[in-house]
Automatic annotation (TrEMBL):
Homotetramer; dimer of dimers. It comes from the Bacteria. The gene is dapA. InterPro entries: Aldolase_TIM (IPR013785), DapA (IPR005263), DapA-like (IPR002220), Schiff_base-form_aldolases_AS (IPR020625), Schiff_base-form_aldolases_CS (IPR020624). This is 4-hydroxy-tetrahydrodipicolinate synthase. It comes from Marilutibacter maris. It catalyses: L-aspartate 4-semialdehyde + pyruvate = (2S,4S)-4-hydroxy-2,3,4,5-tetrahydrodipicolinate + H2O + H(+).
């Protein structure tokens, strides 16, 4: 498996009672597919995986796989702070039909680099699914270093890394490990264009929940080495990137989805977007609708 292009880390829509909203979920999936998204992540951190019950996780993943019907890869978030639980979750995702597992570094427990190697090898050796490493230090409290990734990249069941650190030096160190069997994907929307122009094969994005056509076009241009055109589109998205950071993810992106009639709320301890940012959300919605319309026309041309 070689993952590439625009991959969306999907938000999970809830209804007004904070229950799964499967109608909204299907509309979100349909929008992603219609506008060119090339892969989907179900129940990652943007999908509030930590707030899902096991039965909800299964329903969400199963329904996505049935809806997508093989048109794009479906990745399941399976990472836990405990290795055995991660192996078990990865097996469950495999049984439900996922194409790969997105496995974040164990949150909170802060293992050593040797512990990370042992953790990921145990998951990959179990063989349930191809594994995508995921490094996002601000959320987990630990940083998987490039030399650790180098120890893992040769494993036949470890196929990619989602790197959410933004420094160009970090991305360059990882790109030196990329080959036919191991892909480097950006996990940071504001620097994804730069990463792809440097050689990364794609992005696992939060922003593409609300601008899927724009991210497909951005990826097409960046992966084709069209730096000037890619940079121009990326610059138009900077306001969205800034807005998505005004409160913890996925609060801002879910506010934008709610304004589009997709979902209503988050689960505690996350809360709806603060009142002081709601006018900005309304303004941002108008901006991204205009960008999406232009991008859809460009992609259709």
């Amino acid at each position: 498996m070689q993952l590439s292009g625009s991959i969306t880390a999907l938000a999970t829509p809830f209804d007004a009672a904070r229950e799964l909203d499967l109608d909204a979920w299907h509309r979100l999936l349909a929008m992603q597919l219609e506008r060119g998204t090339q892969g989907l992540v179900v129940a990652g951190s943007t999908g509030e995986a930590a707030a899902l019950y096991d039965a909800e996780y299964d329903l969400l993943l199963r329904s996505a796989i049935e809806f997508v019907a093989g048109r794009v890869p479906v990745l399941a978030g399976t990472g836990h702070s405990n290795t055995a639980k991660t192996v078990e979750q990865t097996r469950r995702a495999a049984a439900l039909g996922a194409d790969a597992a997105l496995v974040v570094t164990p949150p909170y427990v802060r293992p050593t680099q040797a512990g990370l190697v042992a953790h990921y090898r145990a998951i990959a050796d179990d063989g349930a699914l191809p594994v995508v490493l995921y490094n996002v230090p601000p959320r987990t409290g630990g940083d998987m270093l490039p030399e650790t990734v180098a120890e893992l990249a040769g494993h036949p069941r470890i196929v990619a890394i989602k790197e959410a650190r933004s420094e160009p030096e970090r991305m360059q160190a990882l790109l030196e490990l990329q080959d036919r069997d191991f892909s480097v994907l950006s996990g940071d929307d504001p620097t994804a264009c730069r990463a792809m122009l440097a050689g990364a094969r794609g992005v696992i994005s939060v922003a593409s929940n609300v601008v899927p056509a724009a991210f497909r076009l951005l990826c097409n241009l960046a992966l084709a080495g069209k730096a000037e055109q890619a940079g121009a589109w990326d610059a138009r998205l900077h306001g969205l990137y800034a807005f998505l950071g005004v409160e913890p993810n996925p609060t801002p992106v879910k506010a934008l989805l709610t304004l589009q009639g997709i979902g209503h709320d988050l689960r505690l301890p996350l809360q709806a977007l603060s009142e002081r940012h709601r006018d900005a959300a309304t303004t941002m919605l108008a901006t991204i609708r205009a960008i999406e319309d232009e991008c859809r026309n460009s992609l259709a041309a």
